[in-house]
Design brief:
This protein is an alpha/beta fold and 348 residues long. Helices cover 44% and strands 16% of the residues. A 7-stranded mixed beta sheet has the order 2-8-7-6-5-3-4, sandwiched between helices. Strands 9-10-13-12 form a 4-stranded antiparallel beta sheet. Bound molecules: ligand TLP.
Length: 348
């Protein structure tokens, strides 16, 4: 039985071109800023995001943590979306390691945040209040079915923060999915933000890595925080080399993942017991609700070779990526249909 692994685009394996680039990578000690390949990746990343500089980190989680530590001090408050990855999925690092309070404002189903909610959440000077030091946004939005924020959405939220002198960090782990969907350069989506983090290890298929981008001064300060949390790496050109291949050659193909995700969503919508709106689909993350016991349904799917990930309550997530062909999508739909039918018979 072959496996159709829809748990995440993080499962993508490095391409042959990446492995070759890794083998040939010119290296040095990057803590001493002597690794030419990492420096090339950082320069390319900064340019792609329209920022002055970039910092290579091992993970999206570390980039977001380092951004938080760079912008905030202990006792500060940051505003995040109620469904944001930073709030849900980063082990509370901002609070545990940074001493930063995470204040949530609602994300709607399309990942958007109402600028008025941000305005109202920003603390005014008061002896009792922690100061608001950061607003963090996410594009595409993981828990909101890979929804895309437009340049206008991002600008409207950033304007509120900036009016109060508060910087904006953009968790753009999948910003290239948003850029490909909207047909705009990623730099335009990142322009309203003061810092942006994106990952090369998701749909872009590199094995490891994230880039935190911002002004030269921000990146200099972030470099020190990265060292403190153990992210100063040595001959890291070995992995940066794969990141360069990712940026050079893996961005445009994300459109295929989006087409496959839509195909998957349309197929799933026709299965009794499953609810989702395929018209909402924009990028590569499909989230649907199952009317029965979702974890039990996922276990039955896995027994048939279809892997998914659990969002919570009735919600199950399936993510398309380079290893998921159109044929695999059709096979997955057939298997899910079958398992749903059997589940319905079993509960009758
Ligand atoms: N997301 C992972 C899991 O943590 C859920 C996934 O499989 O989607 N920001 C966003 C928006 C993310 O989706 C992720 C990873 C990260 C940050 C963290 O990246 P890593 O996994 O490199 O620490």
């Amino acid at each position: 039985m072959s496996t159709i692994d829809l748990r995440s685009d993080t499962v993508t394996l490095p391409t042959d071109a990446m492995r070759r680039a890794m083998a040939d990578a010119e290296c040095g000690d990057d803590v001493w800023e002597e690794d030419p390949t990492t420096q090339r990746l950082e320069a390319m990343s900064a340019q792609r995001m329209g920022k002055q500089a970039a910092l290579f980190t091992p993970s999206g989680t570390m980039s977001n943590l380092v951004a938080t530590l760079t912008w905030c001090k202990r006792g500060d408050e940051m505003i995040v979306g109620s469904e944001s990855h930073m709030f849900w999925n980063e082990v509370g690092g901002a609070s545990a390691l940074g001493g930063v309070v995470m204040r949530t404002v609602p994300n709607d189903a399309t990942g958007r945040i109402d600028p008025t909610d941000v305005e109202n959440a920003i603390r005014r000077e008061n002896i009792h209040f922690p100061p608001t030091a950061l607003v963090a946004l996410e594009n595409t939005h993981n828990r909101c079915s890979g929804a895309v924020l437009t340049v206008q959405d991002t600008r409207a939220l950033a304007d509120v923060a900036h009016r109060h002198g508060i910087p904006v960090h953009l968790d753009g782990a999948r910003i290239f999915n948003a850029a490909v969907y909207l047909g705009v350069p990623a730099a335009e989506l990142a322009a309203p933000a003061d810092s942006v983090a994106f990952c090369v290890s998701k749909g872009l298929s590199a094995p490891i890595g994230s880039l935190l981008c911002g002004t030269r001064d921000f990146v200099t300060r972030a470099r020190k925080w990265r060292k403190m949390v153990g992210g100063g790496m040595r001959q890291v050109g070995i992995i940066a080399a794969a990141g360069i291949v990712a940026l050079d050659s893996m961005v445009d193909r994300l459109a295929e993942d989006h087409t496959n995700a839509r195909r998957l969503a349309v197929g799933l919508a026709g299965i009794p017991g499953i609810t989702l709106d395929p018209e909402q689909m924009q990028t590569n993350i499909v989230i649907f609700s199952w009317r029965g016991d979702a974890p039990a349904f996922m276990r039955r799917l896995e027994e048939r070779g279809v892997k998914s990930s659990y969002v919570g309550g009735p919600l199950i997530r399936m993510v398309t990526h380079r290893h998921i062909t159109t044929q695999a999508v059709d096979e997955a739909i057939a298997i899910i249909h079958d398992v749903a039918r059997q589940s319905a018979v079993a509960t009758r």
